[in-house]
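Support case: MRU complex. Customer-provided input:
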Amino acid sequence: MESQRSLPRTIFVVRSGVENAWIQDAAAASAVAAFVSEEHVPAGAPIAVILDQSVLPDREEYICTRDWRVVVNAIATLKVRGAPAIGIAGSIALMLFAFADSSTAQLAGGAPCKGDVEEGRAPEGFDVAAYEAALTSCAQTIAHTRPTAVSLSRAVDASLECARTCLSAHMDACSIAEALFEVACARIQEDERINRAIGEAGAPLLKDHPCVLTHCNAGSLATGYFGTALGVVYAAASHGWIERVYADETRPVCQGSRLTVWELSRAHIPTTLICDDMAAYVMSRGLVQACIVGADRIAANGDVANKIGTLSVAINAHHFNIPFYVAAPLETIDFALPSGSDIPIEMRGEDEVCKEPPFGVDILNPAFDVTPAELVTAIITEEGVYAPHELAGVAPLSAASSMKRMR
Ligand code: MRU
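Agent response - structure generated as follows:
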């Protein structure tokens, strides 16, 4: 479909000197080429490529790096953001750490090490316990960078699990780094597959609801590709069912007015930008027939943590009898947490709200809020659409899905 071809790809990995279909536009291609030449990157070395969302829409700049700490900083400073995208960033960060930590002569060239290891014996000079401890500590640092989105810790745990499996198979550090590269690539591919499936599952819900309101950015920019909430919009638009999207500005970081509006315009979807406090007006005038948002974590009872302001949208939608849909991968559901009050809420810096607080007032900046299950009409996943109270029955499906992701 024409509009989907122009969706942005926000985070991926390439290998120096190797053609990669994930490099879609000239800006990404020239950023990678410049990085390889300026940093003298050896052939075959893995490079993380991040579309810097903190400067969008003013500038389309790509960060290229081989340093896991640069990726962690990009997560912390919202250069890469959105639950699935930071999960991908987490697995890329751990992979880069593994390549750097296995700093052998072979790795300096980025080429795979010789993995010839005698059966049942760790490679000579390879301190397995120290290696595992270093990897675990790095994984913890990455996972704690942003606490609300469960995708980040799930992604890092999956990579760590893969590394431990490799260690028990007596593989050397170079081979483990290679395995983590494969895990990161698989996560990107799987995320796109999941988002497209969410889109197909959710599109019929918008068939008779041509004007929808969304909050924050749950689009291609927030994921490996395509998006969750906006993925449903794109899938519905491909059937001709979307007339217009109303995008909340989403203070304080303005994911709506900077990112959603940019992404929807690239996809040629008619869009109206509104300030957050205009949502009730738009609903009261009958301008939207449905609301659709993403999620950072969903508790077992169907309570949904998402970008701050989502709760207001849900309360307004309930008041005006407008369906309120949440679109998210199954891995977003945290069955270990009975209710939304158990979800950790990230508090962010004051300067996001106000650079210089007037009169020395205090500033509160919770990045997320929790919408209670009773305000959620349905949760759209890659396996189908569920009422929040039906989630308990989805648990086995979710487990099967995460297993698939690990392989
Ligand atoms: O702070 P952010 O921009 O990472 O918050 C993002 C959101 O709240 C998204 O709605 C959520 O992660 C779902 S993204 C598909």
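The longest strand covers residues 46-51.

Case will auto-close in a few days if no follow-up is received.
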